Amino acid sequence: MAVVRTFLYLLVYPGILFLFVYSTFCEWYDRKVYARLQNRMGPTHTGRFGILQPIADFFKLMAKEDVVPEAADKGLFNVLPAISLAVVTTAGLLLPVWNFDLAGPNWTSFSGDIIVMLYLLSLPTLILFLAAWSSTNLFSTIGGARVLTMLFGYEVPLFLAVLSPAILADSWRLAEIAAFYQAKPLLLIVNIVGFVVAVIAVQAKLERTPFDIPHAETEIVGGTLTEYSGKKLALFRLTIDIEMVVASGLLAAVFLGGFPGGPFVGLLHFIVKTLFVIFLLSLIRAMTSRIRIDQVVSFAWKVLAPLAVLQLLATILLKGFLS
Amino acid sequence: MKFQIPIGPQHPALKEPISLRMTVEGEVITDADIRLGYNHRGVEKVAEGKNYIQNIYLTERICGICSHSHSTCFVQGVEKLMELEPPKRGMYIRYLVSELERIHSHLLWLGVAGHEAGFDSFFMYVWRDREIVMDLLEMITGNRVHYAINTVGGVRRDLDEAQKAKILEGVATLRKRSEYYLDLGANEPSFVARIAGVGLLSLEQVISLCAVGPTARASGWDRDVRKEDPYAVYDELDFEVATADTCDVLGRVVVRIKEVLEAYKMIEQMMKNLPDGDIACKAPRKAKPGEVVSRYEAPRGENIHYIKANGTDKPERLKVRAPTLGNYPATVEMLKNGFIADIPLIFAAIDPCICCAERAVTLVSARTGEESVVSTAELRKLALARTKNAPVKRNAVWPL
C-alpha cells in the first residue's frame, strides 16, 4: 500500500500529472494576462477561452520531427531535457502544500528543504547552459554564456531575499516558516522588500522580459534552445512552465504566508497565491523592454543585492528586538 | 574569444534578406560587414520596357511600405519631363497620401523598434494605432499597401466631405496617442536604457558618410527635401524639420515621433485649404527627349529617381536611389564597438528597406575577386554545377 501511495504521490498528485496540468494552466493564464495587457486576445480557440492551448502546443511539439545536430554532444544533448524536467518536478514535491503536517518531517518536508529547493531551482539554469554548450551552435553558445552571466547576477540576491524570512522564522523548513507567518501575519510586512527582490530575481531566473536575454530572438535567434526541436523542446518548455509554478509557489510559501487549512483549502491558497505571483511576473513582462546583459549584472549588484542585504539586516535587527 | 556571427540572410531580426557579418569579441562587435544582393529583382531593367503609365505601378512595387514615395517620385519626374502643370486639388490629395504614408511608415518602424528592443507591449500598442491610418489610406485610395492613386498629371480619386471629416477625426485620435508614445519612448527606463547612447553617429560622420533622413536628422543635420527644395504643395504648408542632437537610437525614435506629429499638422492644414477644381490634367503618352532628377522626402530619407526620356512612350533609363542605400555606410560605423544585443536596434534604426535599396548585383568570385557579367541562364547552370554532388561542408569557414 505504501508503495502505491508513493507512486501516486510521484505520478499523479502532486507529482508529474498535477504539475503538468497546473503548469499548463499557468502558462495559459500568463499568456492571457500578457495578451490582455497588450490589448490582444491571447489564446482563444483550443478549449474554452483557449485554456487548452498550452497542452495542444505541448502535444504538437511532441509529434514534431526531432533533429539532433551532427556536431552536438549527442549524449548530453539528448538527456538534458529529461533531467531538467525531473529536477523541477522534484522541486515541486517539496512545496508545503502537500506537506502540511508540521509534526512529522518526512522525505519531502525536512529541515533544510528551503535550501534544497533553491538549489534544485538553480539546476535548470545550469542545465540550460549545458544544453546550449552541447548543441555547439554559435547562437546557442552565446545564449549559454549569457545564461551563466545572468546567473551570477540574480542568484545571490534571490538567495538572500528568500532566506531572510527563514531567519526571522528561525527554521529551515518551508512548512515551519509558513506556519510561523500564519501565526504572526503582521510580520510579513517586514519582508516586503525581500519579496520585491525575489520577484525580480525569479523573473530573471525564468528568463522573461526584461531578462529574456539568453533567448532574445531578435539578437541570437533561439538562443540557448536554437537547436532543440520536437520532444526535447517540448520537455524544456514544460520545464520552464513547472519552474514558474514552483518558483511562485516558493515565493508564496515564504513571503505570502504559505498555504494554511489542510489539503483542500491549502490547495486553494496555493492556486490563488501562485496566480497572484504569476500575475506580477506577467505585469513586469508587459511593462518593460529587454535590457542588455551588462545592465542586468550591474542592476543585480547595484540595486538588487544591496536591497537584499538591507532586508537581511532588517530581519536580523527585528529578530534581536523581538527576542 | 573572437568569432564571426552571421546576422542574416535569414534572421528573426531582419524582415528582409541581407547579410550582416559581425566579428565579435565576447559581446562586443569589433568589425561589421554588409553584403547585399539577396533581393535584386531587376526593376530598373523592367522599367525600360514599359510605358510611363505602366511604370507608375512598377515603381510603386519597389517598396511595400513607402510605395507611394517611389511612385510619386517617379510621377514628379515624368510630369517635369512632360512639362505638365497638375491641378492643385490633385496635388493636395497626392501629398495628403504622402503624409499619411509617412505616419504609417513611422508607426510601423516604432513598433518594430519596440520589438527589436524586446518591448513587445509598445509594439502591440503602436501597431494597433497604425490600423487607424491604414484604414484612412484604404478609405482614400481603396488599397492598404499599394495605393495606386498616382497618375501622370494628378491623382485618380477625389475626396468628399465625409472622407475629410473622417481623416480629421482619425488624425485627432492619432495625435493624442502619438504624444503618449513620445513620452513612453523617451522616458520608459528600461527602453531608454537600451536605446540611449547606442549606435552613435556624430554630425561629422553624418556629413562625410552621406546619411539621409531621420538617421541624419537625429544627429542634428536638419536636411529635409520638403523644406530646402519644396516640391508641389510643401511651400504652402507650415511645418518644422524635426531634429534631435543625441546622435543615437533614442534620437532616431524621437525624430520619427516628432515627424509624425508634424505630419498631423500638415494633414490638418491640407484638409483646411483643400482647393476646388480638377484632380488631374490630361497627360501626353510620350515625353520629349531629355533627362530629369526627381527628389522626394520619403519616410526613410531622400529618395532620388533619375529618368531619361528618348521621345517615345517608354523611359530610356530609370535609376532609383532609395534612402536606405545612402544609410548603409553610416550603419557600418554605427555598429562598430557596439554590443551584440544592439545589432538589431542599430540596424533597425535606419529603418532599412532592403528591397528598395537592391538596385544592382555584381558577381564577384570569392577566391580571386574577379567581377563578371553573365546571363540568368548561365548563372543557373553555374549554380547547378556548383551544388551538384557537392559534399556537405563540415565546419565550413565562411569565406570573407
Architecture (CATH level 2) name of chain B: Orthogonal Bundle
Structural domains of chain A: how many: 1
Number of distinct beta strands of chain B? 10
* Biggest sheet character of chain B: 3 strands, antiparallel
CATH superfamily of chain B: Cytochrome-c3 Hydrogenase, chain B
Share of β-strand residues of chain A:
under 5%
Task: Assign an overall shape of chain A.
Answer: globular
Count of DSSP-assigned helices of chain B:
15
Structure in a nutshell:
Chain A is an all-alpha fold. Chain A has helices spanning 2-11, 16-37, 53-63, 74-93, 113-134, 138-169, 174-183, 192-205, 217-220, 230-255, 262-287, 293-322. In chain A, helix 6 runs parallel beside helix 12 and helix 8 (192-205) crosses helix 11 (262-287).
Polypeptide structure, described:
The complex is a heterodimer of chains A (323) and B (400). Chain A has 323 residues and is mainly alpha-helical. Chain A has one domain. In chain A, 70% of the residues lie in helices and 0% in strands. Chain A contains twelve helices and no strands. Chain A has helices at 2-11, 16-37, 53-63, 74-93, 113-134, 138-169, 174-183, 192-205, 217-220, 230-255, 262-287, 293-322. In chain A, helix 10 crosses helix 11. The longest helix of chain A is centred in the middle third of the chain and has 32 residues, at 138-169. Chain B is an alpha+beta fold. Chain B is globular. Chain B has one domain: Cytochrome-c3 Hydrogenase, chain B. Chain B has helices spanning 43-48, 52-60, 67-81, 88-116, 120-141, 161-187, 189-195, 203-209, 213-217, 225-228, 249-272, 323-335, 343-349, 354-357, 376-387; strands spanning 2-7, 19-25, 28-35, 150-151, 154-155, 290-298, 301-309, 315-321, 363-364, 371-372. In chain B, strands 1-2-3 form a three-stranded antiparallel β-sheet. Chain B has a three-stranded antiparallel β-sheet with strand order 6-7-8. In chain B, helix 4 packs antiparallel against helix 11 (249-272), helix 4 runs antiparallel to helix 13 and helix 5 (120-141) packs antiparallel against helix 6. In chain B, strand 6 (290-298) and strand 7 (301-309) form a beta hairpin. Chain A binds chain B through residues 37-40, 70-71, 138-139, 142, 209-210, 212-213, 216-221, 286-295, and chain B through 3, 5-6, 11-13, 27, 114-122, 124-125, 128, 188, 190-191, 193-194, 339-344, 394-395.
